[in-house]
Amino acid sequence: MIFLVDTGSDVSCIPPPKDKRINNAHMVELFAANNSRIKTYGIKSIDLSFGLRRKFKWDFITADVSIPITGADFLTKFGLLVDLRKRKLIDTLTNLSSLEQNNLINVKTVSVNYHDILKKFPELTNPSIHGQTIKHDTVHFIEIKGQPVHAKVKRLRPEVFKETKKEFEYMIDQGICRPSKSN
């Protein structure tokens, strides 16, 4: 899959599959530079590699776009710089650069009414919750009285187990949950 690297795009998007049936649990509203609405279909997590010796896992918004776009949110999160002259991506973490890409394009930022709002509140369009700071002192816990509930263990089908494990590892990476320290 070839991605357009767009420093003028606030969010990263991919085109929807042909049937457009996707999990709509994380619906977001997007607007084009001309203020027209862009229909969205949910979120899809994708692993990318730009030849920079590390994987870039990101939640892309599935939207009515013609080609996949890596936007400013993706570039900022992973510390990637765009070298327009040499048409390369530079990884500030490893100091490696990608091979020359003819499809590496920069689209200039267009001033729209919503740009300032998105700049002030980037979490509105970023489906990832990784790195969010908690702004309260509330701690949630579940108080259990009596014996723990017990049920016979049932094995998951191998394909379900594989997907569940992948999702759990993703939630650990995002800081949503952590593995138990009990035996």
Describe the protein:
- By secondary structure, the protein is an alpha/beta fold.
- 16% of the residues lie in helices and 19% in strands.
- The longest helix is centred in the C-terminal third of the chain and has 17 residues, at 158-174.
- The N and C termini lie far apart (43 Å).
- Residues 102-110 have low confidence and may be disordered.
**Helix/strand order, N-terminal first:** EEEEEEEHEEHH
Q: What is the subunit organization of this protein?
A: single chain
Class by alpha and beta content:
alpha/beta
How many DSSP helices? 3
How far apart lie the N and C ends?
43 Å
C-alpha Rg (nearest Å): 20 Å
Reading side by side through the largest sheet, how are the strands ordered? Answer: 2-6-5
Strand residue content: 15-25%
Biggest β-sheet description: 3 strands, mixed
Number of strands: 9
Task: Give the helix proportion (percent range).
Answer: 10-25%
List unreliable stretches of 5+ residues: 102-110
Q: Mean pLDDT, as a whole number? A: 79
Q: What gross morphology would you assign? A: globular
Organism: Nephila pilipes (Giant wood spider)
Protein name: Gag-pol polyprotein
GO molecular function: aspartic-type endopeptidase activity
